[in-house]
Design brief:
It is a single-pass membrane protein. There is one protein chain. By secondary structure, the protein is α+β, with helices and mostly antiparallel strands. The chain folds into five domains: about 5-75, no CATH class; about 90-240, Sandwich (Jelly Rolls), CATH 2.60.120; about 295-335, Laminin; about 335-395; about 410-459, Phosphorylase Kinase, domain 1 (2-Layer Sandwich). The chain has helices at about 5-25, 205-220, 250-255, 340-385, 390-395, 400-405, 410-415, 455-459; strands at about 35, 40, 60, 70, 75-85, 90, 95-100, 105-110, 115-130, 130-140, 140-145, 165-175, 175-185, 200-205, 235-240, 265-270, 275-280, 285, 295, 310-315, 320, 325-330, 335-340, 425-430, 430-440, 445-450. A hairpin with a 6-residue loop joins strand 3 (about 60) and strand 4. The relative contact order is 0.07.
Length: about 450
């Protein structure tokens, strides 16, 4: 790192001291280490300077630039951002240009990392030009390729394999890799494209989806790339820790002396190809690679993320949201209901149920009484129709008849015939049935139950 004046050196020292104080408070990096470069945060295991990073995670900050720029390793590739939780870093892509008949290579100078696994992911190799093949060459050979071809007529701003082409790149890389442009010798190609400049670079897929038109204008093969403003185009690398050839969390935990998930309340997960990653448990935030780096999230201080429409109580790793006194319900969803309203609803429900039950009972009693009254009236009617009144008078005034005859009630007849049980049936006639009856004094009698009443016979 070079300083062009004493003033720049003093400024760099002041920035370093300021960031050291911030690091101690935020637990982003190791104590006494720089944790920012310009507006980029540098979390451990990354670091600047001896003793501030895990093996292979060293970075370089160029304080001479305004704003300061962060570089990977000893200063070959610019770092745009580091994502700790996602174990991902965005790097600035370098543009490779070549003339139509020229074969050209660009080496992306990632140093070999025995303790640091890198995966080229979420990025695409994008080539703009005419009749070329573009490759990414890793330590195991080609890992991605695309081939833009020239049509007879020019096309619009697309990236579908004509003029512009792209290929997904997802592979573990162990160190430097190369982007190569090679011309294709095809018969019958359009000479209109012989003077264009072929270009290739790595691009983050998500960024490309949002900026494809801007990028294609920037990579216009009919313009001079040397005369345009530089464009910051990112590509993405996933990173993980692979000390001593460790392939995952189980192996890493066996070697406690170098295991890098140092904070309590952390979670270790296996990386896609090799190594492992550390992050804080749900309910905690911070840096799992630093001792005591995972701190409890006070959810009550972030109602926009952790909603609570009642009383919020923070607990380690979680929180409780309950309704205020006198209310109950789901306070998170804002559905607290007054206890009095609930009690009132309950009482109304009980009263309504009781009223309905009472009404049914009263109606049942009234119907029973009405039925009995109707039956009594019907018996009285039949008694009169069958000259029962005349029979009563005969019994009253003739003692001889009264000694030999008796008027029985329907209850007595039911008891004598066991409610006209069919086992007591003696026979059937044209007008009714005859049952065997046993009176209360054990006398056996024949009881006729009429079906038809013939008025002339009564008369």
């Amino acid at each position: 790192m070079l300083f062009h004046s004493a003033k720049e050196m003093i400024l760099a020292v002041l920035l370093l001291l300021l960031q050291i104080n911030r690091a101690d408070a935020a637990l982003v990096g190791l104590p006494g280490c720089l944790t920012t470069c310009g507006n980029i945060t540098i979390p451990y295991p990354f670091g600047i300077g001896k003793g501030c990073y895990f093996e292979g995670f060293n970075l370089t900050c160029d304080f001479a630039s305004q704003p300061p720029k962060l570089f990977f390793g000893d200063g070959t590739i610019e770092v745009i951002e580091i994502y700790l939780t996602e174990s991902m870093m965005r790097l600035r892509s370098t543009l490779l240009t070549a003339l139509p008949s020229e074969e050209k290579e660009l080496v992306i100078g990632l140093p070999p990392q025995p303790s640091f696994a890198l995966v080229l992911n979420q990025s695409v190799l994008t080539a703009v030009g005419c009749n070329i093949i573009t490759n990414i060459l890793g330590d195991i050979g080609p890992v991605a390729a695309c081939m833009p071809l020239c049509p007879v007529n020019k096309t619009g701003h697309t990236c579908s394999g004509i003029v512009c082409s792209q290929a997904s790149a997802r592979v573990q890389i162990g160190g430097p890799f190369t982007i190569r442009i090679s011309p294709l010798k095809l018969n019958g190609s359009n000479s209109f494209y012989d003077a264009i400049t072929n270009t290739a670079l790595l691009v983050e897929q998500e960024w490309l989806d949002k900026h494809v038109i801007e990028l294609l204008k920037f990579l216009n093969p009919f313009s001079n790339h040397q005369q345009r403003e530089p464009m910051i185009v990112p590509f993405v690398l996933d990173w993980s820790i692979t000390h001593d050839g460790t392939k995952g969390c189980l192996e890493a935990k066996e070697n406690v002396s170098v295991y890098q998930c140092l904070s309590a309340n952390h979670v270790c997960s296996d990386a896609l190809f090799n190594g492992y990653r550390c992050k804080c448990k749900p309910g905690y935030e911070g840096n799992a690679y630093v001792t005591n780096g995972c701190e409890d999230i006070d959810e009550c201080q972030h109602p926009d993320i952790y909603p609570c429409h009642g009383i919020c109580i923070n607990f380690p790793g979680t929180y409780q949201c309950k309704c205020p006194k006198g209310k109950h319900g789901n306070a998170v969803a804002g559905q607290c209901i007054s206890n009095w309203a609930t009690r009132a609803s309950f009482l109304i429900g009980v009263a309504t149920t009781f009223s309905i039950a009472l009404l049914i009972l009263v109606l049942t009693v009234l119907l029973c009484k009405l039925k009995k009254r109707n039956e009594k009236l019907l018996r009285k009617k039949h008694f009169l129709q069958n000259r029962g009144l005349l029979l009563q008078q005969l019994l009253c005034f003739n003692d001889d008849v009264a000694g030999r005859m008796k008027i029985f009630s329907i209850e007595e007849l039911d008891m004598a015939t066991n409610k006209f049980d069919q086992t007591r049936l003696l026979g059937r006639g044209g007008h009714g049935e005859v049952y065997k009856g046993i009176l209360s004094d054990k006398r056996v009698v024949a009881i006729k139950k009429s079906w038809i009443i013939v008025k002339r016979e009564i008369d």
